[in-house]
């Protein structure tokens, strides 16, 4: 009988979610094709081929206006990161290695992880430190809020934002910690200021 109880505990424990931790699914990022009050469109998965290495990966495209970003699972599936961004492609970017923009898998509230991303251009490579800190973990029915920053290796901050993603809605709010504050409810009501 004790063995049976022990086996049952082993089978059940991995499914127990503690209040301060969560397995963050890809579906939170891809929840709707139209997100952030209709300003962002998500498509995929689709194949993307790295022009330098020839590697083919599954990506999700995020489009906002003329900006198109391709996201793939990176860093041993710890996050979704950009592999391409049309803003930088115009400046000669070929691909981004180990990008990290959205947390995936098991994370705890308050947890902070750092990743080094390489932006590979035709004639140079630039490296940045990407940091994700979970501010509010939520659960499968509640919103996730995390802080994401991009810094040069000398510590100079390039971007520093907090993002909120909600079940069945996807991306709902961004707060910039550098200059302006943005808030948008999915209903379309805009609160806050800024022009990023």
Describe the fold and architecture.
The longest helix has 11 residues, at 2-12. The protein has three helices and 16 strands. It has one domain. 10% of the residues lie in helices and 54% in strands.
Write the layout of secondary structure elements.
Elements: H1 2-12, E1 21-24, H2 26-29, E2 34-35, E3 40-49, E4 56-64, E5 67-74, E6 79-85, H3 86-89, E7 93-97, E8 102-103, E9 105-108, E10 112-121, E11 125-136, E12 144-152, E13 157-166, E14 170-176, E15 182-184, E16 190-192
Antiparallel strand pairs: 1-9, 2-3, 3-4, 4-5, 5-6, 6-8, 7-10, 10-11, 11-12, 12-13, 13-14, 15-16
| Order of secondary-structure elements | HEHEEEEEHEEEEEEEEEE
Largest sheet: 6 strands, antiparallel
Mean pLDDT: 86
> Which structural class matches the secondary elements?
mainly beta
Strand order of the largest sheet: 2-3-4-5-6-8
- Tell how many strands the DSSP assignment holds: 16
**What share of residues are in beta strands?**
over 45%
Give the overall form: globular
Task: Name a few traits of the molecule.
mainly beta, 196 residues, six-stranded antiparallel beta sheet, disordered C terminus, 3 helices, 54% strand
Brief digest:
By secondary structure, the chain is mostly beta strands. Helix content is 10%, strand content 54%.
């Amino acid at each position: 009988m004790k063995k049976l109880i022990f086996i049952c505990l082993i089978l059940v424990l991995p499914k127990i979610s503690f209040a301060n931790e969560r397995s963050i699914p890809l579906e939170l990022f891809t929840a709707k094709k139209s997100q952030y009050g209709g300003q962002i469109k998500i498509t995929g998965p689709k194949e993307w081929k790295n022009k330098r290495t020839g590697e083919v990966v599954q990506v999700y495209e995020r489009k906002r206006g003329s900006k198109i970003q391709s996201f793939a699972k990176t860093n041993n599936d710890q996050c979704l990161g950009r592999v391409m961004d049309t803003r930088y492609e115009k400046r000669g970017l070929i691909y981004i290695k180990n990008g990290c923009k959205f947390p995936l898998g098991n994370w705890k509230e308050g947890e902070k992880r750092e990743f080094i991303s390489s932006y590979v251009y035709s004639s140079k490579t630039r490296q940045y430190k990407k940091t994700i800190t979970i501010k509010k973990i939520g659960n499968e029915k509640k919103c996730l809020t995390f802080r994401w920053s991009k810094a040069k290796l000398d510590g100079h901050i390039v971007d520093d934002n907090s993002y909120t993603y909600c079940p069945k809605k996807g991306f709902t709010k961004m707060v910039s910690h550098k200059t302006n504050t943005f808030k948008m409810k999915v209903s379309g009501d805009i609160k806050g200021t800024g022009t990023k």
